[in-house]
Every structure is written in structure tokens, then in C-alpha cells.
Amino acid sequence: MSAHPFYSMHEHGFVRVATSTPKVRTADVAFNRDAVLAEAQRAHEAHVDLLVFPELCLSSYAIDDLHLQAAMIEAVEAAVAEIVHASADLSPVLLVGAALPHKGRLYNCALAIAHGRLLGVVPKSYLPNYREFYEKRWFASGKTLKGQTIRVNGQEVPFGVDLVFASEVLPNFRFFIEICEDIWAATPPSSHGALAGATILCNLSASNIVIGKSDERHLLCRSQSARATAAYIYSAAGHGESTTDLAWDGQGIVYELGDLLAESERFSLEAELCIADVDVDRIVMDRMRVPTFNDAAEVAGRPDETFRTVRFRHAPAGGDIGLIRPVSRFPFVPSRADKLDADCYEAFNIQVDGLMRRIEATGAKSMVIGISGGLDSTHALIVAARACDRLGLPRSFIRGYTMPGFATSDGTKSNAWTLMNAVGITAEEIDIRPAATTMLQDIGHAFSNGEPVYDVTFENVQAGLRTDYLFRLANQHDGFVIGTGDLSELALGWCTYGVGDQMSHYTVNAGVPKTLIQYLIRWCATTGQFGAETEEVLLAILGTEISPELVPAGADGAIQSTEAKIGPYELNDFFLHHVMRFGQKPSKVAFLALHAWHDAALGTWPAGFPEDRKNEYDLAAIRSWLEKFLRRFFAFSQFKRSAVPNGPKVSSGGALSPRGDWRAPSDASAAVWLAELEAKVPIR
């Protein structure tokens, strides 16, 4: 089944890129030529589509006045001819650094080579001539060269800083080249290259290493990939360069939209090949989504209309060649180990700050919240508690109500009371069963006649009564109702509309998906945010199965399970992120989910994630749950989101407020998405 197009990363808009730090020898062109070809062959065997070598790698960079020796110039040009010839049988496009003469000047160049053709030559724009650098002694700047050609080994090819190279085989595989110092310029040439349509920005560099420079490169590459809405590939010279006065670390970096995809080993004595799969379709979709990019292109004079496009054919590998890039299982959950505490603190306090402002604005005398002993109300309560702490209000300002119904378990009720007492709020209990029984009798529901009918009406009578009580209690105590429903439930429509848990005066969890709520509760419980008693009950609540507890347990004792009905929240949150944030097609979402979730032993898990919760899913399960997600998200639940109460956005992944990230009609069809899933994703 791996021959099915679904399993090919190229079918989903990925391009395999790599940086190479070949083993070079100072001023030994033949040795360096062979080293370049050896790395090109390795990249070919790894199914690489684009391979970026360091600056001036054919001669090596640090050879000073030897650049101006006629024998060196001729040897480099001859080596270029041999590499072009050898490339005929190689899959990657090769970006090779070489010095080439043109009209009586010598230029520091990047050469694009593919399938036996020299596609074009890009000169370096900005020549460093300060501290240890003396490039203007040997080279001419190419920053104004546009629309020209250069003669290399008897062939005229495009030459200039106005070249975008575009694949005829893989849509959106379009790259631009700049060289070393260009990224340090106030206006890097790659900014215009991106505005001209390049999705991948490449830098051939011979940057020497000093303390702190690696961090500086990361800063520049990350910021350029984010600002230009692109991927950025950086390849620096390594061992083998002259160490007469400098040292070299061979750093290779691949960024995409500000995210680090891969980094090579630095200071390696062996040749380095740093590979990552870049999502060029995601880049294009993000440019469509953010009009600032197009505005910048207009201000820059529409570079897409003035730059030249050099089209090329190549032979990307078909079939299942894997996926070489980090795919987060929990895209809403903080994953930076060195920033974990700061990220969790930030997420938690976004909610706290939003609620604080609402307390100030309303002049309320209390906050009213229903406490079920489940995840969402637990998290909303600790957010409310911290808001009170920061405003100097007693926690008794919070009025918490646990409202047992026909299916409330002793465990969740006990957790609810333990939590309220531990946090120190005003706590009460209202048994909704008598009122629910009366309502069911009034409407003639079969349950009131003793029949075990547990339909949606039976469930929503309970959910609606709880909300009704909360609103009336808020009236009585001059307060407002804190909503507890989360982003995942809004995405799936897993909430009771109107007089139900969909409604409140302010909903602190509306921008927080279930997986992030779980993680933030665990963070609060394990980092001393609250007292020991509170932390103990928080961990107990985390270990409880997610259930609305609206239907009595079956004869076998099995309780109502939310995830058995709508799917695992960890998958639904994965689907939501890729659909909402990037507009990904269902087939691509399934492809990414398969690579993220097919093997629990592969990839990374959030720090402190429980071993017994490390699940895995095969394609059949992913496809089945994704189909259900698409039906609920696109065709069923938008009317509930269109009337969502106020609440703060928390994650860059987005929110579903009609006043924020997501606007959609309430009567749309899911047919387009379901048809794409059916056509493109195999059953298994």
C-alpha cells in the first residue's frame, strides 16, 4: 500500500532540502570538486530535492589573493563543467559556490545546477570589508546586476540578483539564492526574492566562527524565514578551510516560518548532510492568509513582475520516502524544553489577565462558576483564583456550585468539593435532579414514566438547568458567570447551545484546547502554583476519564465517554490546528497525523507527559476520526461558534470567535472536505 500516492511527501507539498558541509582542502579544486560530488551522490540517495553547499566551496573561501590567480580561476570553471555533467544522473538541484569572471571582474557566485544544466548564476550583493574580511580586494559586488547573462564554459546562462528558480515538477518549489553577508544586510536580497515568489531562500556562506556567532546566525535565519514567510536554508563552511587566522564550524540550519526544522553537527571532521522536508504549500497558504505580504510586494514594486523565472525539471522521488521534519503531536502545547515554564506561565496568565480586566470592567461583586470535578471547570476555577489573587480580592469572591445530576459519579463530586475547599472559594451544592425530573414530566419525556430513555433531550435538560441556575445565581449575587467550555468543544460542537454550557458572561477557556488545558493543569500542579492540597486534587482530576456524566452508567458499569463518541481529543486538537491555522487539506492533515502518531516510540513528547498516556494510532483510526471531525467542524457546529461569548485568544494556533480568527457560515456543507478525504486517503 505504500505505493499509494498518499504516502508520498511530494504529493502533500513537501520539498526535501539539505545543507552540505563537504570535506574540503584549501585551494585544492580537484579535491573539493570530488567532495562536492560525493555529497551530491549522498543527497541523491537520500532523495534530496535541493542541496545547498557553502560559499566558494570549489576553491575554499579563505585563500585570499589566490582567488585572483588565473590558474585558480580556470580550474574552478573546469570543475564547474564536470559537476554540471555529473549532475545529469542526480536528483537534487545543486547550489555550488564558485568565483567566476565576467566582463573583467571576478564575482563571488552561487551556481544553480540540475540534471546536466547550469540553470543560472547569482552574484553576491554585499561584500564584507571590515575586521577580518577583505572581499572587495578580490571581488566585485553584484547587487545591481539584473537581466544579464554570463558565459560559463562556452554557455550563456542567466546572471544576476533577479533570479527565481522554479520547478516544473513540484508546484510551489521556487527558490532564491543569496550569499553569506547578504543576510546581515539591512535589506537582505532574499526579502525581494520572497516577494518575487520564492518559497525557499538559500544562503551559501563561509561565515567564520567566533563566540556567539552561531546564535546570531540562528537569529537572522529565523527572523528572515518568519518575516519573509518562507523557508531559509543556511550552509556554512567547515573543517578544511584555512585556519591561518580564522576557524570554521560548518553550521547548517533549516528554518520554516520561524520554526527550526534541522541543524547540522558543528565542528564535525566528517562531511555533514543536514536534511529537512520543507512544507512549501504551507508557506504559500500562509502568504494568502496574511495580506501584509502582498502589501509589501506592492510597495517593493511587484518583484514578481520584474524578476526572471528560471524553470527547471528534476526527478523527485516517488512513493513513501518518509517525512524528515518534526511534527508535533500536540501543536497547541508548549514544546520548547528551555522555555517550557515561561510558555506555560504566559498561556495561563493570558487567561488570568483577560478575566481580571472583565472583573474591573463589570464592577461585579462575585464570579459564579459551575464546578463538575472535570478538566474544564477545574482550569477555569484556578484561573479565577489567580485573578482574585492578583486583584487583591478574597477567593470567596468566587461562588462555586457543584450540581449533581442523574449520572454524576461519587468520584467527580468528591473531586469538585475537594477542589473548591482547597482553593478556598464560596462553595455550595444544588441537586438538579428534582428540577430535571419536573421538566421531563412537563414535556412528557419517557424517562419521567420510568423508561430508560437517555436521549439528547434527557442530556440537555440537565445541561440547560445547570446553566440556568448559574445565570440566576449571578443575578442574585451581583456577579457574572464564568464559562468553562474549551476550544476543542467549540470546534466539535460538543456543547449545549443557548441555555447550556455554550453560554456564559465570559468564557476563559474559549481559546484553550483540551490538550493544552490538561498540560496547564499539570504545570500548575507540579510547579507550586497552588498549595499541596490543591495540587493533589488537580492530579486526581487529570487522571479521571473525560465524561459529560449526563447518562447513567450501563449495566456493565461503563460510564459515558466523550472521546468514545467524538474521538480522542489529542487527535481532534491535531486536526483543528492544521485545518484552522493553515487551511490544510484533509489528506495532508491525515498524512501529518500518521507521521506524528503512528509509533509512540518515535518523536518527542511534551516534558513530563505520563507514560501510560502515550498513545498511537494507525491510518484507519486517523481517517475515521478525521471524517467525524470534518463533519462536525464544517457542517454541524458553526452556529454554536457564531454566538460564542467573549473570551481571550491564547494560542497562535488560533481561536474560533466570529470576532477573531474564524468566520464561517452556519449552514455550510462539509462535502468538499469529505470528498477530498475520500478520494485521497486510503482506508489503511
TrEMBL record:
InterPro entries: C-N_Hydrolase (IPR003010), C-N_Hydrolase_sf (IPR036526), Gln-dep_NAD_synthase (IPR014445), NAD+_synth_C (IPR041856), NAD/GMP_synthase (IPR022310), NAD_synthase (IPR003694), Rossmann-like_a/b/a_fold (IPR014729). It catalyses: deamido-NAD(+) + L-glutamine + ATP + H2O = L-glutamate + AMP + diphosphate + NAD(+) + H(+). Deamido-NAD(+) binds at N460, E489, W494, C495, T496, Y497, K640. Keywords: ATP-binding, Ligase, NAD, Nucleotide-binding. The active site is at E55, K124, C180. ATP binds at G370, I371, S372, G373, G374, L375, D376, S377, T484. Pathway: Cofactor biosynthesis; NAD(+) biosynthesis; NAD(+) from deamido-NAD(+) (L-Gln route): step 1/1. The keyword NAD applies. Residues 15-280 form the CN hydrolase domain. GO terms for molecular function: NAD+ synthase activity. L-glutamine binds at Y130, S207, K213. PROSITE patterns: CN_HYDROLASE. It holds the Pfam family CN_hydrolase. Its EC number is 6.3.5.1. Catalyzes the ATP-dependent amidation of deamido-NAD to form NAD. Uses L-glutamine as a nitrogen source. Belongs to the NAD synthetase family. PANTHER family: GLUTAMINE-DEPENDENT NAD(+) SYNTHETASE (PTHR23090:SF9), NH 3 /GLUTAMINE-DEPENDENT NAD + SYNTHETASE (PTHR23090). This is Glutamine-dependent NAD(+) synthetase. It comes from Novosphingobium clariflavum.
